[in-house]
Amino acid sequence: VMNPFSTEAVMGALETALEMPPAEKEARARKDLAHIRANTAEDWARRFLTDLKSMQRKKEDHWMAVGFGLASFRMVGMGADFKPLDTQQVLLSYRAAAQRVVLLDWGGTLTPADTGFYDVREEGKYEVPSSVLTTLRQLCADPHTHVMVISGLGRDTVDAAFGSVPGLSLAVEHGFHYRIKSGPWQQLLPGVNTSWREAAEAVMAVYTTRTLGAYMQKKGSSMSWNFSSADPEFGALQARELQYQLQAALEGAPVVVRVGKGYVEACPKGIDKGVMAERFVGLVADAARRGRPAEPLQFVLCVGDDSSDELMFAALQKRKDAAAGRGGAAPGHDLFTATVGRKPSDASAYLADHADVVELLGMLSGVGSSRSKRFASAGDLQSLAAAAGGAARPQQDENSRPPPLREQPVRRSSQSYNPGA
Questions:
Q1: Beta bridge partners of 145
Q2: Which of 54, 154, 272, 378 maximizes the CB count within 10 A of its CB?
């Protein structure tokens, strides 16, 4: 699928078609033939007329048109105060913080949203640039910085991509399984009931048959219908209809149906990126308070690009607001939430694209490493501090590391967080 009005896109598509390997040509032909045999012109006409009769006119008052075509067109409202992330303020807060948490999405945040494969099931792998892995290693090498990548993909895929980074925490399937640094894999909500998946699979199979390029994926706790390789406009329409059908079929089951970037997913209630992000921040904050010496959590950065990441932004802001409402002598942490791309979001700011995200992480890793250098540059964030008009918080002893922690029960989890693990 390409934009016919773009000369570069047409040239690229023609080049791809001419240089396509025979195996890929045969795979594409088989998929197209199976779709044609399963969808006759009569079936298409019947569905088209049914959908046409069910359409209702939307009220367009107080909304703004964004995007082009059915795939990206939407009526949204966007606040005028939604601005790019203030990276100078982020660097200042990061430098001054005793303990830090960095939460990151994967696709569209650390790497481009487009995997580059014509069908990810055929390739069976997702690549992460070595420069991104190097930046993550530098961040995780700082014992005061706790980094977690939270993805909706399966455990094997995420572990294969990021398992080589020492000290990096991972959460897969939106938090169904997670691992703190080099510790064992745990379940966010043990004993999940998955008996509803048979009904969800039956509904998804109907839309897989009628949507060329779409396919189903079974995960540890969820069922996903992926339409990223389908026609953008038709795939988006089918995804919206599938969402309604799943919600009706699974009514009464402990399941939530979400629509993300190129997928529709049915997963158990109580398992999402927001719950996982809140759990990780809570574990780090509790461990920091029990350390010797006690070091408060003073910095949280959360970046994502998908609709599922909105749950992280909302949960972290709610947690911070609740802590501020309780008051107390201990100061709260600085919270920075950013969505990738300028769009309506629960995040407080945005970054232009994944390249800006990786660049920011590289700057943070440089700030962390410079703290241990006796003769750091005089301009190393001092000019930023002057521009912000405030003094930084006192620095912690660079040689101090948080000690091992006592076992302490955590909500829905029997393992406490050990920052030295």
A1: 100
A2: 272
